[in-house]
Amino acid sequence: MAPVTSPAHDSASPAGIEQHSIDWVPLSERHGKPSSVGAIWFVGSLNLTGLATGVVTLSMGASLVWTVIATVLGSLFGTFFMAFHSAQGPQLGLPQLVQSRPQFGYLGAAFTVWVFALINYVAFNTSDALLSGQALNMLTGIPNGIGYAMAAVVAAVIALFGYEWIHRLNKWLTWPFVAITAAITGAALFGGGLPDGVWDAGPFDLAPFMLVFVFVAGFQLGWAPYVSDYSRYLRPDVPVRSTFWWTYLPSAISGIWVFVLGAVVSAGAPEGADPVTALKLAADRLFSGFGTVAVVVLLVGLLSIMAINQYGGSLTMISIMDSFRPVKPTRAIRVATIGIMMVAVGTVSILVGIDQFNWFFANVVVVLAYLFIPWTAINLVDFFFVRRGQYVVKEIFNPRGIYGRWGWRGNLSYGIGLACMAPFMVITGLYVGPVAENLGGVDYSIFVGLPVSGVLYRLFARSLDLDAERRMVREEGLLAPLH
């Protein structure tokens, strides 16, 4: 493929269908302001999945007060790393995962990073599928599977139109969603459904507290493999701090808001109620019928996130294929990969079922967090401390280029980091590492994987010939100095 000059795309569509996929975005097509990413990451959590995240946190064993505290800290922590990934987009003009080739190699990234990323998209979209199916079943009575299919088709159309329309949709949704979510919050807090003593903190138990912390931090880190996909059309002279803050604050604030709201909604619902039912019950306490309005609005928000997940899953599949055989980034291949995502997600959601949602979602988010914590450390250390944002774009698409087919530094750092995390992991009902067990079930793995992987990669990178690489960067002339 030809990522540096504009590749041969399908002719521009008057409907505004995006032409690019995993290729480099030419400077002539860069546009927008850092504030444009704010709407995506604010609305990104104001939906049924964001609410369900809060519902699941309260099932982890801590009181509501300690759940709220752990949620706030976990969100602030996980969003910090996610926002720095967002700042990579304007500099490189490439999808997030393609940027992993300099650390993991042309083939190595496909095996160690992109397969996990694809699992990430399928898993999160499965959760979205279960919730969208349940919401449409509640609203119309149609079977859950048909409800998901209807929602998935709408999301697929948005994903096909791509970058611009995803941005526009989230911009349009921002203020209506703020108003509706504020009303739901009022109903949940003051509608009279909370049991007596719910705000008593009770004894502090570190094990469930850390389960909530890791779960919420993992949910926010789950955006990391594709966060810069939505900033890659910004110009490269956009300061890192601008993209960082326009990602960090909207995502952290909306995340904390809806996660805490989900926990409060769950506290006022019958035990074992699914997130959609809990939401409707809480909202109906404001006035009869508002529960239906609340479900409809957060379902619309869910369609936006389903589109983002389908879009990212499509880019990941194209990236994997391109690692073995060069792929021309056409609309046809985007349509095909989006279709594959829909079928895969539909199949998995049928196997899981809404009754298993809480268990599935809780464990999926935590496992994916474990898989991406070492990658996050390696990718950020390479971008900000090793290469300082300077990459030879053409070589990223060269299977025998300077970045190699197998990046031993990234893969070795990743493997060691993940191995060091394993004894500290806690996967509810499935696995408790020996160290975590000795510590009373407390999960410290996130504080092990990040420094181990990052420090090891920094040490291994000392053998890189960065002077030669920077000469190639200057000769290519595509990237501005990091600032």
- What is the N-to-C order of secondary-structure elements (H for helix, E for strand)? HHHHHHHHHHHHHHHHEEHHH
Architecture of the domain at 27-358 in CATH? Answer: Orthogonal Bundle
Helix vs. strand class? mainly alpha
Give the C-alpha Rg.
22 Å
Beta-strand residue percentage:
under 5%
The CATH superfamily of the domain at 27-358 is identified as Hydantoin permease
Q: Mean pLDDT across all residues, rounded?
A: 86
Q: Summarize the biggest pleated sheet.
A: 2 strands, antiparallel
Number of helices: 19
Strand order of the largest sheet: 1-2
Question: Care to describe what's here?
Answer:
The protein has 483 residues and is mainly α. The chain has 19 helices and 2 strands. The chain has a domain at 27-358: Hydantoin permease (Orthogonal Bundle), CATH 1.10.4160.10. Strands 1-2 form a two-stranded antiparallel sheet. The two termini are 30 Å apart.
SSE layout and pairings?
Elements: H1 36-43, H2 48-57, H3 64-86, H4 88-92, H5 101-104, H6 108-140, H7 144-161, H8 163-190, H9 206-221, H10 240-267, H11 275-284, H12 290-324, H13 331-352, H14 357-386, H15 393-396, H16 408-421, E1 426-427, E2 431-432, H17 434-438, H18 446-460, H19 466-476
